[in-house]
Structures are given as C-alpha cells and as structure tokens.
Design goal:
Blueprint lengths: L1 E7 L24 E5 L12 E6 L2 E11 L1 H4 L3 E3 L1 H8 L11 E6 L5
Parallel strand pairs: 1-5, 2-4
Antiparallel strand pairs: 1-6, 2-5, 3-4, 3-6
C-alpha cells in the first residue's frame, strides 16, 4: 500500500481521548483504529478497511475509522493508542514520534 511517517493521537494532552472518530467510534486507551489523511483521494472509501502496519519487526492490524489533516498529508496514518502501543509496546510519547512504517491495505485496494 504505502510506506510513510505516522503519528499518534488519543491522549489527554491532545484532547482526543474519549472523542468520537469520523465513523462514530470512541477513541480510548485501547482503541485499534487509525485515521487517514483527508488529502488522500476518496479517503472516506477506506473507512472500515483493515490495514497492516509494520515497524521494527512487529505487525499490527488496525481499522480505518477516522480522518484528519495529518500535516497536510505529510503523514501516512494517525494511530490511536491501542495501535501505537501494540506497534511499539510502549505508551504514546515514550518512543520517537513520527516513525516511518510500512502500511498495507488488507483488501489489496489502492
């Protein structure tokens, strides 16, 4: 699908913990969703799709359930807390922000 830089959201410091995603899910400390950039063509068509996120020998499966600015599209995905922690096995902010990951749409749709 694509490789790119990711970021994380869903903390008390950014005010999104407990907020609703674009699809109505609630962002929690264990939520396994991701946001795609709104600059991506037909970004809403990705809602509900599963994506594999690989980084540092770990692969995590998450669901696209949100969208956002993501730095004008400079980041590939924005990870919710459960995805960030499963990917890095640490809490948000405890490792280098904005790592480059490899992401693959489980539906093989481009």
């Amino acid at each position: 699908w694509r490789s790119g830089v990711v970021s994380a959201y869903g903390s008390t410091s950014d005010g999104t913990l407990g907020a609703h995603t674009a699809t109505g899910a609630i962002v929690s400390e264990s939520s396994m969703g991701v946001a795609v950039p709104m600059s991506m063509p037909n970004y809403r068509s990705y809602f509900g799709r599963s994506v594999e996120i690989s980084y540092g020998g770990r692969t995590v499966v998450a669901v696209v359930n949100d969208c956002g600015g993501l730095g004008g599209g400079s980041r590939a995905l924005d990870l919710q807390p459960g995805v960030w922690m499963a990917r890095a096995a640490v809490s948000i902010g405890a490792c280098a922000p904005f790592p480059t990951v490899s992401c693959k749409d489980k539906c093989s749709h481009r």
